[in-house]
Amino acid sequence: MKKDVNVRQQIVKNYFEKLRGRCQGSYIKNVNNWCDINLDIDHLFPDKQNEKLITSFEKVVTADLTKLLSIRDYIDTNKIKMTDGLKNYLLKTVYQCNIDRLAFVRDLGVSVCPYCNRNFINSSSRKTSCQLDHFINKSDYPILSVSFYNLVPVCGSCNHKKGTKDFSYSPYDNTIGIDDMLTFSYDIKGVEYLSDLSKLDILIDLGLNKILDKNIEILELEEMYQIHKDVVQELLIKKEIYTEEYQEQLFREFGGVFASKQELEQLIIGAYIDSENYGKRPLSKMISDIGKELGIVRGNKKI
Ligand SMILES: [Zn+2]
User: Fold this and answer.
1) 227 C-alpha vs ligand 1 centroid, how far in Å?
2) Phi and psi of 269, rounded to 5°?
3) How far is the CA of 222 from the centre of ligand 1 (A)?
4) Where are the domains of the chain?
């Protein structure tokens, strides 16, 4: 879920302003007090001079992923608890009622679940319709229940399977790209693979770093993807039809329609082929990886 840093900062700022506007001042004061008493805010947020005036609540709500993980560790190490009253207010009022989930998802520009890349995340036009996963679970860490970077818009299936379990990787982690952590491939088990789906397997290679290990295991993603063998079957057929020569011919004939050869390749495979856009259409990562393996997708050459 990559975005320009300044654009993202503005989205996070707007999110906090709207949230604060919907919360009761007296309760916000209580949350601020709780943070000041229980969290070592100056140590956790060794910020610049001009940020001294920002409240602890704002710091926690707008904290980036690395800071959220530091707060979680601090809470664990110091065995910090919260009273039921404050916890209920944060979970049942602030999280459940005060977040415009529809706007949250719209601002992020994500259409497809970032955990599985299989299902769309919109379910209706109601403000509270989209499901948000708490990357760090809200039950043990209620203070992080409305922190922007702890909220991941996801599909119902992933939300249900993950529950309160810990994942090894958050889609907000921009230190490593998805293409460096996971590659889809396929295996042909018999000559009738073009007519018999049981002769095909979809494989997930997690590479040497295994960063996504836990995510894939908890979501049972390799098993879930086997339902999409027909898509791979189509790609194998497309490989025979859309040879390099035929693609060149199409590009010459319809060159005016496409801004680049990449656009023609995307039209052929029916998915986005660059990691920035995988979240716009289901199965893009799988189709792109296997499309590249088959040679249907060759590169990002601009005309
Ligand atoms: Zn999902």
Assistant:
1) 14
2) -85, -15
3) 13
4) 5-162, 178-294
Mean pLDDT, contiguous 10-residue spans, the chain (303 residues): 78 92 87 92 73 83 94 95 94 89 87 94 68 95 97 94 92 92 96 92 92 94 96 96 94 88 94 92 97 88 42
Q: How many whole angstroms from 61 Cα to the centroid of ligand 1? A: 24
Closest CA to 303 of 245, 256, 246: 256
- 91-107 pLDDT, tens digit each: 999 998 888 888 898 88
Cα 105 to averaged position of ligand 1 atoms, centre (Å): 14
H-type alpha helices, 23-180? 25-38, 41-44, 56-62, 65-77, 84-88, 96-98, 101-108, 156-162
Which residues have CB less than 5 Å away from ligand 1 (the ion)? Answer: 113, 115-116, 155, 158
Cα-to-centroid distance, 101 and ligand 1 (Å): 16
Q: Identify any residues that bridge with 152 across adjacent strands, giving them in sequence order.
A: 133
